[in-house]
Amino acid sequence: MIKPFLQEVVEDLIERFGTNLQHCAIVFNNKRPAAYMQKYLANVIQKPFFSPSFYTIQEFFAAATNYKIADFYLQFFTLHKIYNQLLAEEQLEPISSHKFFPLAKIILSDFTQIDNDLVDAEKLYRDLEDISVINKDFDYLSPEQYEFLAQFWTSYSEGKHKKQQELFIKMWRRMPKLYHKFHATLKTQDYLTNGYVYRHLAEEIGQQENLPVDFEKGKIILVGFNALTRAEAKIFTQLQEAGKALFYFDADEYYLNDPLQEAGLFLRKNLNLLGLKNEFEHNTSLMKTESHQVNVFKVQGQSAQAKILNNILADDYSDQKEIGSTVVVLADESLLLPALQTIPTSYNQKTIELNVTMGFALATSSIFGLADLWFASQLEIIHNGKVSYKNVEAFLTHPLTGLSQKMRDKILTALLTENEVEIQHERLLRQSGLFEVFYKKIDSPKSVVPYLLSVLDFILTRLSNAKTLKKIDAELFVKTIQELNRLHDTFGKHIGEEDITFVIYLVQKSLQTIAVPLSGDPLNGIQLMGLLETRNLNFDKVVILGFNEGIIPKSSIGNSFIPDSIRRVYGLPVLENLDAISSYMVYRLMQRAKQINFVYNSLTDESTSGEVSRILKQLEYESSFSFAYHELNLEVKTEAFREVKIEKTNNVFIQQTLQKYLDKQKVLSPSALTQYISNPIDFFFNYIAGIKEPKEVSAVVEANEIGSILHKVMEYFYEDLRKAEITTDKIKEKRKQIPALTQKAFNAVMFNHPDKAMEYKGMQKVILSIVEAYVNIILNQDENQAPFNTISLEQKVEAEINFPLNNREASVKIFGFIDRVDVKDGITRIVDYKTGSDKLTFKDVPELFNSDGKNINKALVQTLLYTYAYEQFSGKTRVEPNLYVVKTMAVDGVWFKSGRQTLSGEYLEEIKPEFLAELRKKLTELFEAPYFVASTVEDNYKYSIYKTLFGK
């Protein structure tokens, strides 16, 4: 095994300092290496010893100052206040917190970079409208820098300040004042920003005496640094000159001594330009001397990258070594969950040790889901005193609310019955318990955090008492409550005047950043980490997932108000820096690894380029590593068509259910029969298996509900008129009531409450208008037909139909509601209203019943059934079916037609017995055929909700 970098550092330090090592401070870029370093120290010394102190660079520098570090929210509120003061000085309108928030994030990030790189903010933000000023004031620039600066300002002066440019220049002029006032205000409260701590130490040399090290006996050991900010560079050189620091750079001459290698860019600066001395400067090149095997896996799809891990890690599952010799690096951190779902917990009855250093995000947990639901509900309550049904339903069914199934069903059933799209806030509060805590209205910006804490506290207590709290949830709860308490302390002085919705937004944003580390042993088993966390660590086997161009290196440097040309003048980070940092991190992982596996997604979509990282291309071209290529092709197979049919003969349940129809315990509706004719298997799912579509509360009115509302209006309309002959004048007079009757019908159908007083909104108004238009079309027809007499409205009719079954006579009862029966010129008419696109034409009677034909006319079968039932029920003959298809009746009339023949008079009387004979055949088939099958004509089940169940 190649010796890890940190082990080499440990051996060198022990040789140098011996027992004085306890007086040294060992400083890293990040926290992770300290555990490894302690392990190597213990392995080498092999007896009790006093450990040196370990720090991250931020902790180390922060320890040297008496100031506290300002968190983001303190910085934001301070910045916003000062920004508005500056706007007031310019006699401009103040900017709201909500609008300023995204700007503040960019400004604060810029200020941090300015401080980290010791840039003079005054000069950087200098207003250079006159290009000649550059010649005078910037004579220290190199020709290239001068070119960048001239280019930037020329682009502005040429356009002579368009509106956007003017706004930018105004903001640009505000920046120096904002920068100085911002830092001064924080300082008066004993706070500094992280970036300013660096500046403070770099510019005030006396401050470095306060660094937490005993310089008499020990030194500062700076391990594994690469890209340094100007402040770090200055502090590091001063410490080296004072003989207080030692540097261990993890470098390889392969990329260090070749100026074309971007991986060595920053190390060359540190060693050649700054003159920092690397204690390991004469190490041999591992990139050149050791053998490296590289496997490249090209896969299709984002999550598929993780799915290949089981192939790559098979050896590691069976044989786990001490000090995790295998690492899975997620260049794309969104692959954390797919990777966790792929790596098994045990292999051949042996537990697999897995340590995940990346945090599990609160945003992907049910706790955040509940908090998010609380934010959404509170915004609705603040906005209109109601909560939408979908949010109430989400609350009732959320796993953490812990409501019993019985309570859940009771409330949901009540809400479904009322079909209320929004529920009154007071009504929710009346439910007490969790409802009272969850729906308590936020009354001031200061109560946002305490109220959310009380919701979490209520749920946490209930889960603890019920002993159903999961370990990961417990950690997330603790972290969330800690963060909320911290926010509460920071917000205290600043949010009195803020808008509640903005405070909710801030809390939401803050919770999105929370993550808890998943447990594990940082030294044993397979390590799962992000690329940044691998700094200083070495592994024999490296797997990098998400090795795509645009991810590694990244394709954007983040938002900034400092343009690229000016960044280059002042040496602030630019895109090439990211390339160099990414290359270095990959190369240093590789130099001590024996086996390297790169996995990338070859599919192009909005988040990935589908191309492998250029770092691989470079390695292929110039290194002597051996490469093996693997491609994971996912075969897309279409499932072979299988005909789904339901056997009746040997199925007791089906036979018993069908028998209920024959015993008249169940009655057959016209719609059940037409469903059987169109697609027999649908009849099974609906009427035998009883699979129904779940009811939903929706602001959108379904097509069948429009039909129900129309039927109701027509019933209300003719209710009073039916007592006497209906004339044109009577219809005209009653038409004035249509709007009121439509609203009454709407309330009856949608809310089960005809006299409900309500205010109609958006879509509801549209539906009312549509129904009114439909009613008017029907009444136009009726005025032309008047006078006539109405016999009944919405009348229920029943009749028995006999048919042969297994060589014996059987019968079923059919029933239905006839929209209207009236008499005109001595002829009794059955009137059926339709709001769909039903047709009046038919081919012939046998085709009406042909499940595998294209000429089924459901409306005709239904109205002829009504006609038959009504004749049986009333003893009348020559009853005529009429169909009022509102969309087409003004043109097509109301009679069914076959060819040119209208279905009335003698032709109708000929058709009736033929219809009855075909109907009997169909009923025999329903009860006698061995299977329920699907129609072979796709149009016959086009709108079926059961399509997926019968394999279509």
Can you give a write-up of this model?
The two termini are 58 Å apart. The protein has 952 residues and is of the alpha/beta class. It is built from 40 helices and 27 strands. The protein folds into five domains: 5-65 and 210-285, Rossmann fold, CATH 3.40.50; 68-199, no CATH class; 290-358 and 520-631, Rossmann fold; 363-517; 652-950. It is elongated. The longest helix is centred in the first third of the chain and has 26 residues, at 163-188. A hairpin with a 2-residue loop joins β25 (897-898) and β26. α4 crosses α5 and α19 (366-384) packs antiparallel against α20. It is 48% helix and 14% strand. It has a seven-stranded parallel β-sheet with strand order 11-16-8-17-18-7-19. Residues 668-926 form the PD-(D/E)XK endonuclease-like domain. InterPro entries: P-loop_NTPase, PDDEXK-like_dom_sf, PDDEXK_AddAB-type, Restrct_endonuc-II-like.
Topology:
Blueprint: H1 5-17, E1 25-28, H2 33-45, E2 53-56, H3 57-62, E3 68-69, H4 72-89, H5 97-116, H6 121-124, H7 132-137, H8 143-158, H9 163-188, E4 191-192, H10 194-203, E5 220-223, H11 230-241, E6 245-248, H12 253-256, H13 265-273, H14 286-289, E7 293-299, H15 304-307, H16 309-312, H17 314-318, E8 326-330, H18 336-342, E9 346-347, E10 350-351, E11 354-356, E12 359-361, H19 366-384, E13 386-388, H20 389-397, H21 405-418, E14 422-424, H22 425-429, H23 434-438, H24 448-465, H25 471-491, H26 500-512, E15 515-517, E16 526-530, E17 541-545, H27 564-570, H28 575-591, E18 595-601, H29 614-622, E19 626-632, E20 646-647, H30 652-662, H31 670-678, H32 680-688, H33 703-719, H34 728-734, H35 738-751, H36 762-785, E21 789-805, E22 808-824, E23 827-834, H37 845-848, H38 858-874, E24 880-885, H39 889-892, E25 897-898, E26 901-902, H40 905-928, E27 931-932
Parallel strand pairs: 1-2, 1-5, 3-4, 5-6, 7-18, 7-19, 8-16, 8-17, 11-16, 17-18, 23-24
Antiparallel strand pairs: 9-10, 12-15, 13-14, 20-27, 21-22, 22-23, 25-26
